[in-house]
Amino acid sequence: MKKVVLTGDRPSGKLHLGHFVGSLQNRIAMQNDYDVFIMLADLQALTDNFKNPTKVSESVFEVCLDYLAVGIDPEKATIFIQSQIPVIFQLTKLYLNLVTVARLSRNPTIKEELKHREFGDSIPAGFLTYPISQAADITCVNAELVPAGSDQVPMIEQTCEIVDTFNSLYCSEEHVLQRPKILLPKAGARLVGIDGQSKMSKSLNNAIFLSDSADEIKSKVMKMYTDPNHLRVQDPGQVEGNVVFEYLDIFGTDKEQIQSMKEHYQRGGLGDVTVKKYLIDVLENLLDPIRKRRDEIATNKDFVWRVLKTGCEKTKERSEQVFKKVQKAMKLNYF
Ligand code: TRP
Predict the structure, then answer these.
(1) pLDDT per residue over 137-190, tens digit each?
(2) What is the DSSP-derived secondary structure letter of residue 16?
(3) Would you call 81 helix, strand, or coil by DSSP?
(4) Is ligand 1 within 6 A of the CB of residue 138?
(5) CB-based contact 73:38 (threshold 8 Å)
(6) By three-state DSSP, how is residue 127 classified?
(7) Phi, psi of 214 (to 5 degrees)
(8) Count of alpha carbons within 13 Å of 88, Cβ hemisphere only?
(9) Does 41 contact ligand 1 (Cβ within 6 A)?
(10) Quick check: CB of 272 below 6 Å from ligand 1?
C-alpha cells in the first residue's frame, strides 16, 4: 500500500512562484509514488478572513486551477475542500478536549501569526484553535507524511501530541490514529520576493504569480532588486543577494551560461538590464505553458468542479472509515 500524504494551502489568493518552488514541484513528484491528498483549507483561511468569505471561496477555484495548470494530476492526487468533509468538524470537536488554551497560546506559529493580525485582545476562538482543526485535517485520512514548510513544524508537533493523547486515553489495544511526520522542503526551496527582502508572499506585494501575464512578468523582473552598488555597466557587481541571479540559479536550465554571466557581472561589463532580459526569457519558458494550460482549463469550469467534487467524495469516504474507529475507541458507537 502506498503511504498516505496530506498537504494543503489556505485559499486566500492565487499561487505564486514561491509555492511552485516550495511545494508544488514536490507534490508533482510525489503524486506518482504516494497516495497524495491535497487540501484547500478554506476553513482555516476563514479563521482570519471570516468577514470576507467570498475571497476564500473564489480562491478555492483559482488555487485548484493553479494546481491543475502546473501538472497536479487529479487521476493520481486527490484534491479536496476542507469544509466539505464533515469528519474534520467532528474530529475537531473531539480533539478540543485534549488541548489546553495555554498550550494553544504557546504555539509558536500562532504567536507569530498573531503579530501580523489586528485582533488585539479579541482573538477569535476559531483562530486560536485552528491547530486543532489542522490535527483533524491530517488525521481524518490518517496521513503518515505531511509535506509543509518549516513554519508548520509546531503544527505537526501539536498534531502528534493530540494523536498521542488520543491513543493513550482511548486505545488500549490498537492505536487508532497515525502519528504524522513533516516532510520539509529541500534546502534552497525557499524563494525570496522580487524585493529581495524576505520570502515571496502575496501580502508583501513581492510575488510573481503563476497566472501573471508576460507583461506583468516583464515589469516585475525589471523592478527586481539587484546590487545597489552596481551603478554603471562597467562596475564590478555582486552576485550574492542579487535576486536576479538567485532566480537564475533556481529556474535557469543552462548552468554554464549562467556561470559565465555571473563571472562577467562580477568582473564588470554586464548590465542589469541584460541579465534581467535573460531572466524574463527563462521565466517565460517556464510560465508560458502553465499560463496556457490554466487559461484552457479555466474555459471548462465544470471540469474543475468535477475534480473537486470527486476529490471531496473520495476523502469523505476515507475519513468516515477513520471516524468509525474513533467513535468505537471513544465508545460513541451507540447504534
Ligand atoms: N497551515 C497550512 C498553511 O498555512 C495549511 C494547512 C491547513 C495544512 N491544514 C493543513 C498543511 C494540513 C498541511 C497539512 O499553509
Answers:
(1) 999 999 999 999 999 999 999 999 999 999 999 999 899 999 999 999 988 778
(2) B
(3) strand
(4) yes
(5) no
(6) helix
(7) -55, -40
(8) 23
(9) yes
(10) no
